[in-house]
Design brief:
The chain has about 150 residues and is mainly beta. The protein is about 5% helix and about 45% strand. It is globular.
Length: about 150
């Protein structure tokens, strides 16, 4: 199988929505590949079916058995990287080699401040909001850290 690696430029894997992920993909394979691609994608992890969305795919033309290529992908504004009790949204840059396919992945975080959003374990179900939106222990208060005022309220 050989060796495959993806490195983010300057080790930057915590990124802002609307920013850019840059780096280098390198590989050393046992035989010549029939195709090599780089993908920017996000996927869900957790309970239920895993969803995968390829945001951008770049086919690397003329890729040899041993090669190294720089990449640069613009990042969309959503979805943000987040982690919850039942499901998480994760982002990655993937290097895929054919035949196989054989792949490797560099996980990245795409969220404000480059910090994954962590949902509290006591997120209410549907319309439920223990303590009320503005009450002690309320869901919105736990996310924003201050009372939430509705339009027209003081």
């Amino acid at each position: 199988m050989g060796h495959m690696r993806i490195e983010a430029r300057d080790g930057r894997t915590a990124l802002e929505p609307g920013g850019t992920v840059e780096g280098t993909a390198s590989w050393s394979l046992d035989g010549a590949p029939s195709g090599v691609s780089l993908l920017l994608c996000w996927y869900t992890r957790g309970k239920g079916t895993e969803d995968v969305r390829v945001v951008e795919r770049v086919r690397l033309e003329g890729a040899g058995r041993e090669d190294r290529r720089d990449f640069r992908f613009p990042l969309p504004r959503t979805p943000w990287s987040f982690s919850g009790t039942l499901v998480s949204v994760c982002w990655a840059v993937e290097l895929v080699v054919e035949p196989g396919p054989v792949s490797t992945r560099l996980e990245i975080t795409v969220a404000p401040g480059g910090k994954e959003v962590v949902l509290p374990a006591d997120v209410p179900q549907k319309d439920e909001d223990p303590g009320g939106a503005r009450g002690k222990g309320g869901f919105l208060r736990s996310l924003f850290g201050s009372p939430v005022r509705r339009p027209g309220e003081r």
